[in-house]
């Protein structure tokens, strides 16, 4: 009887032997290198058992509506009796540290995906394994990844379901969880890493973190990359086929939480407060992905080596092979597998839906020969939306063409008219008049040029309307 109890305890709790722990179905986990004791990963500990973490898989389909069905690979009848269909593609959504898969962005992502695609969407919850210390959560993702792989194996056995039908979407530690599942199951169609966690993953061997070999296609959004002296929660280095760096990848417009400057020795302090520091910037990655589902053209990424080069216009417009869209439709890019570690940069708006279209604007002035002041343009679309942008300030000359790269929040295909506005400097003559003779716009996506023409001149503060010509 006693021996039988020990056998049951072995299967329920796993067995720890030195630096290794083994769990039924999932195999054994060690803390040997590269899992610990390598540069950038000087951590200790082993993953908790799957039972301790209460891992669950909730299925959302068009049949379930806003509700879900809890399904289990251990009790495969729950999958067979659910609305899971082997004739549909499947997306797994995996949260990160301190989060949950039972509510919030994970569920919202599933419901939105179902609006645009008839798929199986599975929300993976490992809240109990993600709520302790950050280091324990880092260790735990190996078991979560093994559980996702076990689930995919079960689908293969039950339905002859191909991994090529599967898309794993993971945020922060969830991105590396997806990588662990992909390391175990070859042939997964796509993994999307949403700001993959940086601490204990940056600069580590590929086995430990998300990398391009984990799926047929790996795309990554970096929104809070740790780039010293700034400290962030995400990775800075490329870790996919296509790596997108919106707004440079570290600090996101519209986020008010500060990204402090710290010494490497302060690193553990940052980890201890990981849910506070950079939280908004870190979360932007899954917010960008969410919005990209509905706005497929507003997240164009430009191939560039650095954000500075992108900002200065060195990588404008898109090359002949085109540019990929960051987010849900990144897999539509024909050259996505041309090589690994392709870097793409873009700017976004500060508020939802965060979309922006990069354009190069040229303004030719008419009116007084020279004056001082500033020039703004107001874009109007066909639905009555407007957005104002400053072009230049200082000496304004009739002989000069003023140029600026703008990330306009209005889709260029919907621009109906443009207003030219100028304001005088303190000592500018009251009767001075200026106008925009022409405004030419080069669109970043295809290099196409649009021209808007104006008539006459206006005094300061009075708008001049320009229409396509």
From TrEMBL:
Primary site of residence: secreted
Keyword Calcium: yes
Domain (PLAT) ranges: 366-454
InterPro entries for this protein: AB_hydrolase_fold, Lipase, Lipase_LIPH, Lipase_N, Lipase_panc, PLAT/LH2_dom, PLAT/LH2_dom_sf, TAG_lipase
Entries under SUPFAM superfamilies matching the protein: alpha/beta-Hydrolases (SSF53474), Lipase/lipooxygenase domain (PLAT/LH2 domain) (SSF49723)
Pfam family, one: Lipase
Compartments (UniProt record): Secreted
Reaction it catalyzes: a triacylglycerol + H2O = a diacylglycerol + a fatty acid + H(+)
Any coiled-coil regions, as ranges: none
Binding residue positions for Ca(2+): 209, 211, 214
GO terms, molecular function: lipoprotein lipase activity; metal ion binding
Enzymatic class: hydrolase
Keywords in alphabetical order: Calcium, Disulfide bond, Lipid degradation, Lipid metabolism, Metal-binding, Secreted, Signal
Signal peptide: 1-18
Any single GO CC term annotated in Swiss-Prot or TrEMBL for this entry: extracellular region
Domain Lipase: 19-354
Residues annotated as the enzyme's active site: 172, 195, 282
Record carries keyword Secreted: yes
EC number annotated for this UniProt entry: 3.1.1.3
GO biological process, one term: lipid catabolic process
Protein family: Belongs to the AB hydrolase superfamily. Lipase family.
Protein name: Triacylglycerol lipase
């Amino acid at each position: 009887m006693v021996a039988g109890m020990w056998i049951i305890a072995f299967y329920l709790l796993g067995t720890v032997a030195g630096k290794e722990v083994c769990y039924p179905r999932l195999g054994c986990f060690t803390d040997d290198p590269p899992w610990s004791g390598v540069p950038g990963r000087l951590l200790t500990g082993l993953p908790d058992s799957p039972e301790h973490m209460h891992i669950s898989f909730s299925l959302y389909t068009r049949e379930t509506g806003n509700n879900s069905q809890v399904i289990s690979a251990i009790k495969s009848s729950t999958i067979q009796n659910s609305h899971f269909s082997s004739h549909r593609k499947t997306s797994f959504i995996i949260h990160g540290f301190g989060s949950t898969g039972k509510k919030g962005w994970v569920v919202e992502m599933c419901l939105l995906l179902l609006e645009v695609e008839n798929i199986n969407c599975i929300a993976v919850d490992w809240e109990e394994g993600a709520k302790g210390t950050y280091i324990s959560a880092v260790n735990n993702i190996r078991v979560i990844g093994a559980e996702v792989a076990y689930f995919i194996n079960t689908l293969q056995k039950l339905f002859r379901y191909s991994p090529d039908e599967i898309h794993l979407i993971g945020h922060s530690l969830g991105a590396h969880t997806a990588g662990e599942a992909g390391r175990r199951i070859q042939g997964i169609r796509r993994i999307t890493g949403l700001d993959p966690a940086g601490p204990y993953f940056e600069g580590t061997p590929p086995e430990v973190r998300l990398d391009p070999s984990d799926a047929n296609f790996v795309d990554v959004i970096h929104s809070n990359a740790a780039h010293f002296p700034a400290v962030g929660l995400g990775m800075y280095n490329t870790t996919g086929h296509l790596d997108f760096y919106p707004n440079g990848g570290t600090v996101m417009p519209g986020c008010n939480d500060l990204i402090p400057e710290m010494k490497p020795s302060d690193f553990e302090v940052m980890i201890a407060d990981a849910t506070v520091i950079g939280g908004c910037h870190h979360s932007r990655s899954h917010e960008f992905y969410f919005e990209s589902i509905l706005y497929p053209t507003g997240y164009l990424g430009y191939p560039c080596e650095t954000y500075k080069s992108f900002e200065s216009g060195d990588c404008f417009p898109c090359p002949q092979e085109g540019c990929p869209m960051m987010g849900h439709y990144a897999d539509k890019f024909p050259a996505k597998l041309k090589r690994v570690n392709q870097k793409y940069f873009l700017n976004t708006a500060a508020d939802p839906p965060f979309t922006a279209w990069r354009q190069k604007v040229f303004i030719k002035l008419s009116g007084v020969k020279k004056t001082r002041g500033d020039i703004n343009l107001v874009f109007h679309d066909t639905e009555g939306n407007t957005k104002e942008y400053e072009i230049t300030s200082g000496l304004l000359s009739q002989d000069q063409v003023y140029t600026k790269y703008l990330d306009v929040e209005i889709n260029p295909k919907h621009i109906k008219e443009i207003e030219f506005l100028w304001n005088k400097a303190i000592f500018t003559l009251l009767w001075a008049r200026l106008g925009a003779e022409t405004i030419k716009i080069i669109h970043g996506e295809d290099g196409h040029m649009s021209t808007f023409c104006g008539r006459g001149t206006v005094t300061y503060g009075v708008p001049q309307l320009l229409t396509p010509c």
